[in-house]
Amino acid sequence: MTRVEQELDEFAKLDAEGIDPATGDPFADVPALLDTFLVRNVPDENEVLVAWYGGRPRTALPGEDSYVTRHGAFEQLVDSMLADGGTRQVTAPGYGDAMVTVQRVRAGQESGALVVVSYLERDRAELRNTFRTYALVGLAALAVITAVAFWQSGRLLAPLRTLRDTAEGINESDLSLRIPEQGNDDITALTHTINGMLGRLEEAFVGQRQFLDDAGHELKTPLTILQGHLELMDPTDPAEVAETRALLLDEVDRMSRLVGDLILLAKHDRPDFLSPAPVSVERLTHTLLAKVRALPGRAWELDGAGDAIATLDEQRITQAVLQLADNALKHTAEGERIRLGSDVTDGVVRLWVADSGPGIPDDLKGHVLERFGRGAVTADDEGFGLGLSIVRAIAEAHGGHVTVDDTDPGAPRPGATVTLHLPQELPWPGS
């Protein structure tokens, strides 16, 4: 109907404002007006434009339309509508449903009409074909989209399936499995995070297993000693009971120290292991020197003191430095010099203890920092090889590390300098 209204509006405008091309004046007769309109318009595919005057159809576009040109019912219908115009729906033989619209026109004593015939069945057939085409295209597009979505979802979810398979393959004896990382999307970021978590879990389990193995190994000897002496002791001999009691108390004391050291190592990665606070490095260094000078028989010297404020756990650092001082005491002779110092450079706090003893061979400098790792020891050394590992644990809890170097490289007695390297500010908030 929109197209028909457009045709009628154009015809009304031509009637009101149009110029007859033959005369150059406004249209003076109906045939000229109707014929000019038909010449200037092209009907739609399912539409017929008819110039009606003199009581019958004179010109039709297209002209081969049989309903308009050869069917008497059409003329009767238009005759009945000329007086009032308007639109009626009829059944056109051979065409089905049709809409016939009549717009009357008058010029002088002549009258006529523009008749527009719209075949509805053809429009409906075209509409059905259009919907059918849209439906087929939509189904084909849906199939393609579904296939692409299925493929894409499978590709995107593949890392999650791999994650599931990897998680199923992890057990208490094998934590080494990792998920392949490919791409640069959120799934890859998740994979990287999961791999990091697996790495930390593996490290924790390995550390726990090593801790249990080391503890079991080191406790086995004192327990064997306790059991053996208790089994062989004569309870009726007061002297033997007293001797055995003293010996067993000494072993119990050694076991207590060993358990305490192991507990400290086990706790070093806990959030509450440190209680950091702003500390004057210079004051801390002088305090440490005052404490180690209470250890007899050595010449304790200050080897510099850093002038800065650092965020540290003063008690833990004191524990570490006193442990280094105790180690230096064991590996130096009466009257030998031991130096303690500190400095702060580029945001790194360095605290060291340098002795003048026999030193540590290069191949053992990393080993002595491990649990139960020991170099050459004196006959009276009752340690367990946990001292430097405790120092390293305290340094790592601060986000730092420990190095072992020669005090005087190339000398017959090169000595050993053990240094704590600590960030001036903790690399994470809190402890």
Give structural notes.
The two termini are 81 Å apart. The protein is built from ten helices and twelve strands. It is an alpha+beta fold and 431 residues long. The chain folds into three domains: 119 residues, Beta-Lactamase (2-Layer Sandwich), CATH 3.30.450; 82 residues, Helix Hairpins; 152 residues, Histidine kinase-like ATPase, C-terminal domain (Heat Shock Protein 90, 2-Layer Sandwich). The strands form three sheets. Strands 2-1-5-4-3 form a five-stranded antiparallel sheet. A five-stranded mixed sheet has the order 7-9-10-12-11. The protein has a two-stranded antiparallel sheet with strand order 6-8. The protein is rod-shaped.
Which key features would you list for this structure?
single chain, 431 residues, alpha+beta, Beta-Lactamase, Helix Hairpins, Heat Shock Protein 90, 3 domains, 5-stranded antiparallel β-sheet, 5-stranded mixed β-sheet, 10 helices
